[in-house]
């Protein structure tokens, strides 16, 4: 035989092998991925997101996508002459505004993500929390300066039925969920913050990981004065920080806390502006954002 041939693709094999421990660890595990409206600004990023989710699916994980669409809703409301107002980080949602919210989330943003994922095969199925009683809510009245405020059709999740999502996962599909909930009597629907919905679903599904993609690097220690990202913190450490956090981060970090306090192993806030941030986070040990772990973290760094 002649001398050994030079295989120029060998570094690729090295990269695949480096992912082996992570592939083994995450095999069969459910990962809830929240794709924020602010991270959905760029066509290339959206395609890379879809590729990552499909990659996870083919690597044996069970991804569930929950999407936001705040900026897209604000734009549509503006076109309808409705002014966007937020209280306690949540959109004040009149009945008219709710029609627009539902149209944008279920009819526009969700359809686009389903389309991008399905470019890779017959994988994604879109639903909202209304479908098969996936999410039931009651009217949410947050406190602002100690006073209860009425913010219209904004819901607080009271019940989750994971049946439809689990059936889709068992059938090898990728559920794409819009954050709209039904009311107990099916009389109307509620607008639910997408971070809150993703966290509640992650807990109800017994997911291994909740991953929240947004438009910052992670949780900044002293926002907006410094860009020092907190790379890892426990539930109790996060709980202490919560009162200091500002609007957009509040539902995200409250969601992460809820998730890890209810069985999810890790909740991560990562930068959706970095292409393939999901793969970097799942398959390398260079976590790129903020990771929240339960207080007793038996697996330590391996989480
Ligand atoms: N401590 C913090 N660390 C990082 N971002 C913060 C912090 N506090 C507030 N923010 C704001 O939260 C925003 C993310 O939330 P949001 O706008 O709701 O994004 P998304 O559409 O991804 O849900 C950031 O762009 C930033 O302006
Ligand atoms: C009650 C409430 O505020 N609902 C959000 C739902 C969409 C969302 O959460 O989108 P992002 O993740 O892109 O912020 C809203 O109407 O904007």
* CATH fold-level assignment: Carbamate kinase
**Major sheet strand order:** 5-10-2-1-13-15-16-14
- What is the CATH domain class? Alpha Beta
How much is the radius of gyration in Å?
20 Å
End-to-end gap: 48 Å
Number of strands: 16
Q: Secondary-structure element sequence?
A: HHEHEHEEHEEEEEHEEEHEEHHEHE
Number of domains: 1
Helix content: 25-40%
Mean pLDDT, to the nearest integer, reads 93
Rough shape?
globular
Strand content: 15-25%
Structural class: alpha/beta
Q: What is the annotated CATH architecture?
A: 3-Layer(aba) Sandwich
Query: Low-confidence stretches at least 5 residues in length (pLDDT < 50)?
Result: none
Number of discrete helical segments? 10
Considering the protein shown, what is the CATH homologous superfamily?
Answer: Acetylglutamate kinase-like
Biggest beta-sheet profile: 8 strands, mixed
* Hetero ligands: adenosine-5'-diphosphate, N-acetyl-L-glutamyl 5-phosphate
Keywords: Amino-acid biosynthesis, Arginine biosynthesis, ATP-binding, Cytoplasm, Kinase, Nucleotide-binding, Transferase
Subcellular location: Cytoplasm
Protein name: Acetylglutamate kinase
Function: Catalyzes the ATP-dependent phosphorylation of N-acetyl-L-glutamate.
Write the layout of secondary structure elements.
Blueprint: H1 10-18, H2 20-26, E1 30-35, H3 43-58, E2 62-67, H4 70-79, E3 86-87, E4 90-91, H5 95-118, E5 124-128, E6 135-139, E7 143-144, E8 147-148, E9 155-160, H6 163-170, E10 174-178, E11 180-183, E12 189-191, H7 194-204, E13 209-214, E14 232-234, H8 235-241, H9 249-261, E15 266-271, H10 277-283, E16 290-293
Parallel strand pairs: 1-2, 1-13, 2-10, 5-10, 6-11, 13-15, 14-16
Antiparallel strand pairs: 3-4, 6-9, 7-8, 11-12, 15-16
Helix pairs in contact: 4-5, 7-9
The protein binds adenosine-5'-diphosphate (ADP) and N-acetyl-L-glutamyl 5-phosphate (X2W).
């Amino acid at each position: 035989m002649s001398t050994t041939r030079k295989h120029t693709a060998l570094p690729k094999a090295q990269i695949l092998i480096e992912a082996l421990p992570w592939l083994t660890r995450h095999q069969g595990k459910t990962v809830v991925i929240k794709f924020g409206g602010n991270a959905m600004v760029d066509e290339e990023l959206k395609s890379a997101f879809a590729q990552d989710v499909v990659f996870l699916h083919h690597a044996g994980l069970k991804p569930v996508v929950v999407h936001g669409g705040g900026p897209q809703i604000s734009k549509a409301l503006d076109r309808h002459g409705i002014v966007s107002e937020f209280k306690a980080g949540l959109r004040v949602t009149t009945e008219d505004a709710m029609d627009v919210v539902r149209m944008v989330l279920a009819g526009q943003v969700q359809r686009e993500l389903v389309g991008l994922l399905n470019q890779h095969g017959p994988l994604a199925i879109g639903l909202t929390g209304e479908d098969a009683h996936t999410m039931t809510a009651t009217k949410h009245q947050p406190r602002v300066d100690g006073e209860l405020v009425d913010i219209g059709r904004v819901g607080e999740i009271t019940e989750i039925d994971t049946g439809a999502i689990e059936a889709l996962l068992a059938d090898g599909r990728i559920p794409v969920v819009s954050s709209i909930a039904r009311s107990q009597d099916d009389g109307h629907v509620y607008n639910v913050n997408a971070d809150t919905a993703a966290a509640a679903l992650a807990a109800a599904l017994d997911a291994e990981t909740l991953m929240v993609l947004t438009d910052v690097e992670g949780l900044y220690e002293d926002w907006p004065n410094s860009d020092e990202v907190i790379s890892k913190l426990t539930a109790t450490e996060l709980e202490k920080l919560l009162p200091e956090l500002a609007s957009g981060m509040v539902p995200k970090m409250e969601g992460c806390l809820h998730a890890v306090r209810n069985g999810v192993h890790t909740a991560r806030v990562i930068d959706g502006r970095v292409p393939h941030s999901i793969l970097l986070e799942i398959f390398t040990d260079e976590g790129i954002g903020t990771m929240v772990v339960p207080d007793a973290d038996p697996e330590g760094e391996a989480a």
